[in-house]
């Protein structure tokens, strides 16, 4: 069968019956580009749930330290992983820019990075739209809080990301918020929101990574392989990013096969950020706080993904089939090489979630999400299904079959609807929860390849 014939069988969406054996490879390039945008933004929005929990209990100092340590711990690891996955390993500013175009720290369009590469070792970027800044401006426009984000947290985390490519690459601002007419501002309404130069500095600028990063390098997730599709079933698009840097790159430029890798890597990035966040809280505040913040961040972030899938991927509805599809595509359960997830519909109002023996259940990061799973349903699972249907409940299972963990989900109309948790209400302070992407590429027509 030819590639062209195969392409007609690919799904353009997830309409129709639930398929328990569905994989990312069953979707078309067009749908996968949309899914890549969602995984990319959803990963970024983890901090809209996780960091406010720290700020409410430990104030400005705790919030700042947590933001720095989370990103410094995770971004150097996932930067190298993405370079390897898409074939653009290197030690230049060009490599750093390619990373920024694909990672959850700078989600396309919401954090609208624009680039100019002058030479392999010098370039500039600026933000035409900074969703993180606009969230803070909308929620009080506090110059001190904006400085914390755009100066105190940004400086060390930007350099940690750059140093993953080369220890002497640094990022330095030309200007940055707060956008106020004051000595410490860059002018009211300043556009672009910020502008930075990226270059290879002198030998005495060599970056020192934090201990958490070296810890996470040893975790199961850091080394997990991806599911790779052997054959081309839909022609067109970039199979990797080994070629020239494209300052206007969008996910739509990649092939159907490459998009599957990008989606899986964005899922890895989100989970690494959660691991890093949990280690930071545990180290600074002890086991009880580390586990508690890990659990509560999962409760809120799992719902962010559900809401975006329902509003932007055509998965609206409160029936059991819609619920099964959303769980099956949820970014917290990718890549399948890390989380061996199975979803099966067992009745008109019931389904079963199973997790087989897999690296996620053997992870060595203390208090990580999957280490909290047991016979009784976790609050995050209940939160996820209740966002689809507030009358849904998770139940423990006596016979889990050949899976170490399993839970039944039942929609019972006699149940009282569950209220939305505080963690999801916190997340709604960000416009990212309801952000709508533009289509800036038409796969197969304008996209490269």
Task: Give an account of the 3D structure.
The chain has 449 residues and is α+β, with helices and mostly antiparallel strands. The protein folds into two domains: 26-227 and 247-260, no CATH class; 302-434, no CATH class. 43% of the residues lie in helices and 12% in strands. Strands 1-2-4-3 form a four-stranded antiparallel beta sheet. The chain has a four-stranded antiparallel beta sheet with strand order 5-6-8-7, with helices on one face. The protein is globular, with a radius of gyration of 21 Å. Mean pLDDT is 94; it is low at 1-7.
Sheet-strand content, in percent, reads: 5-15%
Count the helices. How many?
Answer: 13
Sketch the topology as an H/E string, one letter per element: HHHHEEHHEEHHHHHEEHEEH
Question: Structural class, please?
Answer: alpha+beta
For the secondary structure, the number of strands is 8
Low-confidence stretches: 1-7
Helix proportion range: 40-55%
Radius of gyration: 21 Å
What's the arrangement of strands in the largest beta sheet?
1-2-4-3
Largest sheet: 4 strands, antiparallel
Q: What's the overall geometry?
A: globular
N- to C-terminal distance: 22 Å
On the 0 to 100 scale, the average pLDDT is 94
Overall tally of domains: 2
Compose a concise summary of this entry:
The chain has helices spanning 3-7, 29-44, 46-86, 93-102, 131-138, 143-163, 211-216, 220-223, 256-285, 287-312, 320-329, 379-388, 422-427; strands at 111-119, 122-130, 169-175, 195-200, 341-347, 350-355, 392-396, 405-411.
